[in-house]
Amino acid sequence: MKRSELKEYIRGQIIEILTEESAEEIKAKTAAQAELNKELEKTKELIGEEEEEEEGEDVSLDVEKESIQDIMTQMSNLFDNYKKGKIELKDYIPMRKSLQAKLNKIEVDLVDVDDE
Predict the structure, then answer these.
(1) What is the DSSP string of 30-89?
(2) How far apart, in whole angstroms, are the C-alpha atoms of residue 18 and residue 9?
(3) What is the pLDDT of residues 16-53, one digit of tens each?
């Protein structure tokens, strides 16, 4: 073996030995990985809880949308009945105000949900 080859071989062996991890380094990396895994689990749980809350909000919004549609249908039917003479003005106005109040309450609730 030539002298230059021997130097290269020894240099390679020294670098390999120096780059090997010690037992302490391996333990430290293992502990850090375990801590990272715990944080990842916490993050998964929080994301899951947040998604469940959002699903609950979506359901309540759907219910409120249906309620708005129902109220609008009732208002339309009420107006049609008034227009056809089936309901007198004295009866129409309080019914209309009641439906409008319900509609306003739902709209306020929707705005409050959006603000959260």
Answers:
(1) HHHHHHHHHHHHHHHHHHHHHHHHHHHHHHHHHHHHHHHHHHHHHHHHHHHHHHTTSS-H
(2) 14
(3) 877 777 777 777 778 888 888 788 788 778 777 766 66
